[in-house]
Amino acid sequence: MNALSIGTAFAALLAGGLATLPIAADAAPMRIAFGDLPGVESVQTLAALERAKERGVEIELTILNDEDLATQAIVSGQADVGIGAPYTIIQKAGVPIRIFMQIATARFFPIVNTDFYKSWKDLDGQEIAVQARGSGTEAVMLMMAKKNGITFSSISYVPGSEVRRGALMQGTIKASIVDAANRRILEAEGKGKFLVLPVEGLKATDEALFATNDYIAANAEAVDIVVEELLKTAREIAENPAVAVELRNKYKLLPDLGAEADAEIEAYYKETTEAGALALNGGGPDAVKDDFDFYTLSEAIEGDPASLKAEDFWNMASLDRVIAKLGAK
């Protein structure tokens, strides 16, 4: 996949470039495929990966900006760990990919250009833009279409919440879905041009770590360290959202955003924490139930939620060990 080599240079800009020592002399690097364009909402994840490096986990991070590509990289063996919400592909691929930790629950905001639309009903027969096929953004829009008795004429796949925000500002798309940070920008700079449509009953995985069962078992020590650092980082940020800015500057994350992004990063994590969207316990059984309810309702996966089995989608061995060590929140 060409995107794997392209992403390597970009990944170097995201991380602080810390020297790392592998856990074992012959340990292979953990190749992580990030299925999105990193933005302010990625500081927690990127900082936690830097902390895992400091503990001896050698990590190669590749930015693929598309959840499909990240999942395909795991399926084809070109990456070891993916970041995304792979429920659809888990059910359809026939490869034993499993989620082993939830990073955050979904906080997506369907948003429309009020020159054209002002309600869900107005979107009947219209085109929308989402992150990727099988993504949480698509699932939200399909769920709300079902709830409101409408059908979209077509769905465009536009990776990157900030890219969709820019297209909304430019008028090249008229209805889409963005994250909290880009929703705030649209509200601040849109001069009343944009409207956030209501979403009810949304509590599902937005970002998670996933890998094959074989990889999780064979690399338990490294996987546990990554899970532990993600949980510790999330808990520190939840306690004080300003920590996200401190971590961003310590590890020189997202340099292209400039120093002016610090205020937005703190505001994002304050809002996200207040909404309870950071997964302080990594998901687990409660997340499975919420995800089954959501992803079956949105038709991203098939079956009766009550009959679906957690072990067909999740591997909680690492999470159980880390929670036993850190304690639950």
Describe this structure in words.
The structure is a single chain. Helices cover 44% and strands 16% of the residues. Helix 6 packs parallel to helix 7 and helix 9 crosses helix 13. 50% of the residues are buried. With 329 residues, the chain is of the alpha/beta class. The strands form three sheets. A five-stranded mixed beta sheet has the order 2-1-3-10-4, with helices on both faces. A three-stranded antiparallel beta sheet has the order 8-5-9, with helices on both faces. It has a two-stranded parallel ribbon with strand order 6-7. The longest helix is centred in the C-terminal third of the chain and has 20 residues. The N terminus is likely disordered.
Counting DSSP H or I runs of 4 or more residues, the number of helices is: 13
Structural class: alpha/beta
Which term fits the overall shape? globular
Number of strands: 10
What is the H/E string? Answer: HEHEHEHEEEHEHEHEEHHHHHH
Span of the ends, CA to CA: 40 Å
The radius of gyration over CA amounts to 19 Å
The helix content, as a percent range, equals: 40-55%
Sheet with the most strands, sense and barrel status: 5 strands, mixed
Poorly predicted ranges (pLDDT <50, ≥5 residues)?
1-22
Give average pLDDT, whole number.
89
Strand content: 15-25%
Arrangement of strands in the largest sheet: 2-1-3-10-4
In short:
The chain has helices at 2-14, 43-54, 67-75, 87-93, 136-148, 161-170, 180-189, 213-218, 220-239, 242-250, 261-274, 285-297, 317-326; strands at residues 30-34, 59-63, 81-84, 97-105, 109-113, 127-130, 154-157, 175-178, 194-196, 205-212. With 329 residues, the protein is an alpha/beta fold.
